[in-house]
Write a structure and sequence with these properties.
The complex is a heterodimer. By secondary structure, chain A is an alpha+beta fold. Helix content of chain A is 55%, strand content 19%. Chain A is elongated, with a radius of gyration of 22 Å. In chain B, the strands form two sheets. Chain B has a nine-stranded mixed beta sheet with strand order 3-2-4-1-5-6-7-9-8, with helices on both faces. Chain B has a two-stranded antiparallel sheet with strand order 10-11. Chain B has a single domain, classed as Peptidase S8/S53 domain (Rossmann fold, 3-Layer(aba) Sandwich), CATH 3.40.50.200. Classes of the chains: A alpha+beta, B alpha/beta.
């Protein structure tokens, strides 16, 4: 890979890892702040109408990332479709939820806090925090903190989505990929050819600026 | 130049009011010197008030909900949106929770479910708008909206509908967002927007001197109706909102001629922090 293409690609490929790390740090922090058993970020896959585990801290970390379930089911589904944060403390009363949770994650939470991940006018997914300790009374101040974490997770998720789109564009057969191939050829060419190519590019730039 | 006198009362008033016409639009003024909770809803049950829950459906025969007068579902098939009677209940439980809270405050109100959520994510904003439009056409007195949209391209239409409802006598009660995002319709002045407080009493209501959240109602650790006839404890503005919808149903069952403007004034005057707690 040429230096130039590598430079373009580094911003994209490196970004994916960095944004995933940011997302992971967000769920780790959310879990820590609320003294919870687990915390997850779900990304909405609009094409299939499914929620996908993107980052998991605590219970399920290492096994759940990539797992999917229908977007309008469960508490995460409520939050996604209503765009409203929600806290439920005694989920085990609901046998249907317990069964679904057990089948999809192998872990049945007792309580869940969930917020929608909103960026501009889109809902990107849901942040959930599972099983905070019950001996500490829940307050609305915690709800507000959850909203702030949701905002941070939404930004990280948005960056991750953008990086993936850019990566797909670079690797595909579209216009950006053609530009990346051009940059690669330019880097590989000998000095004369590169100078000629750059002159052509400058002429093209002037033409487009007219 | 004198304008020809209006021949029928229906034509009055339009864009102006002739000097001689003031008498013909005299309105009843039955408000007491001090609006108390006793005056506002003392002895009321919600009887005769039609309340619409715009949500994920309502589970039929849930013990906390009781009779649901009518259930319709709004669906989108490519570009066609259909509103049709539906008996599949609630797909995710959220609407049932809201309906149960309204019922707990106004046990004899009529409940109608308009399902606009839960049948997949795609196209939800258009379905929501169609459901709201339908509810306004049907002339419900109160519409509970424990939901919001962030889709800015639909804001103008949503605003038009909220204003149309306000002047048609339909009070929209909408959940506020306690997150740093722009969402609607709760930000509109023609709706009643609701956030949560931490008190346990379902009749504690606070008027917010710093809108756009106009009122705070019970939203912390609320016992709510859940799917399959169950109950569960949950927190969120979604559950504060139907407390205000239920309160509106109570007030309207005792004072059916109140306009949304007047109804909002009664809510304000009976708020716990405005002296209404007495």
């Amino acid at each position: 890979m040429s230096d130039l293409r590598a430079a373009v690609a580094a911003g994209v490929f490196g970004a994916d890892d960095a944004f995933r790390a940011l997302l992971q740090a967000t769920v780790e922090t959310a879990r820590g702040i609320f003294h919870a058993k687990a915390s997850s970020v779900f990304l909405l896959d609009e094409a299939t109408d499914e929620l996908v585990f993107e980052a998991v801290a605590g219970e399920g970390a290492g096994t759940l990332v990539g797992k999917r379930f229908p977007s309008s089911t469960g508490v995460a589904g409520w939050v996604l479709v209503t765009r409203q944060p929600l806290v439920v403390d005694d989920l085990t009363k609901d046998t249907r939820f317990s069964r679904d949770a057990a089948e999809s994650t192998g872990y049945v939470p007792r309580g869940i806090m969930a917020v929608p991940l909103l960026v501009d006018d889109s809902v990107l997914g849901v942040l959930s925090v599972l099983d905070r300790p019950l001996d500490v009374p829940f307050t609305l101040a915690e709800m507000d903190v959850l909203g702030l974490f949701g905002n941070q997770a939404a930004i990280a998720l948005d960056l991750l989505r953008r990086a993936r789109r850019a990566q797909a564009a670079l690797e595909g057969s579209g216009e950006l990929a053609a530009l990346a191939r051009f940059a690669s050829r330019l880097e590989e060419a000998d000095e004369d050819k590169r100078e000629a190519g750059l002159q052509l590019l400058r002429a093209l730039e002037r033409l487009l600026a007219l | 130049m004198a304008v020809a006198a209006h021949e029928t009362e229906e034509e009055l008033p339009a864009w102006s009011l002739p000097a001689s016409a003031g008498e013909s639009i005299q309105l009843p003024s039955a408000w007491p010197e001090r609006v108390t909770r006793e005056w506002a809803w003392g002895g009321a049950t919600g009887a005769g008030v039609r309340v619409c829950v715009l949500d994920s459906g309502i589970e039929l025969a849930h013990p906390l909900v009781g009779t649901v007068q009518r259930s319709v579902a709004v669906t989108k098939d490519e570009d066609t949106i259909t509103v049709a009677d539906d008996d599949s209940g609630d797909l995710c439980g959220h609407g049932t929770a809201c309906a149960g809270i309204i019922r707990s405050l106004a046990p004899e109100c009529e409940l109608t479910s308009v399902r606009v959520l839960g049948a997949g994510y795609t196209g939800s904003a258009k379905v929501l708008l169609a459901g709201l439009e339908w509810a306004i056409e049907q002339g419900y007195s109160v519409v509970n909206m424990s939901l919001s949209t962030t889709k800015t391209q639909y804001v103008d239409r949503l605003h038009e509908l909220a204003d149309a409802a306000y002047f048609k006598g339909t009070m929209l009660i909408a959940s506020a967002h306690n997150m740093p995002v722009e969402s609607f319709p709760w930000r509109f002045a023609s709706v009643v927007s609701v956030g949560s407080h931490e008190a346990e009493d379902p009749f504690v209501l606070y008027a917010n001197p710093r809108p756009p959240v106009e009122f705070f109602a019970r939203g912390l650790n609320v016992e709510i109706a859940w799917l399959d006839g169950a109950t569960i404890t949950a927190t969120g503005n979604s559950f504060a909102t139907p407390h205000v919808a239920g309160l509106c149903a109570l007030i309207l069952s005792k004072h059916p001629d109140l306009t949304p403007f007047q109804l909002k004034s009664v809510l304000h005057l009976t708020s716990t922090n405005v002296g209404g707690g007495a």
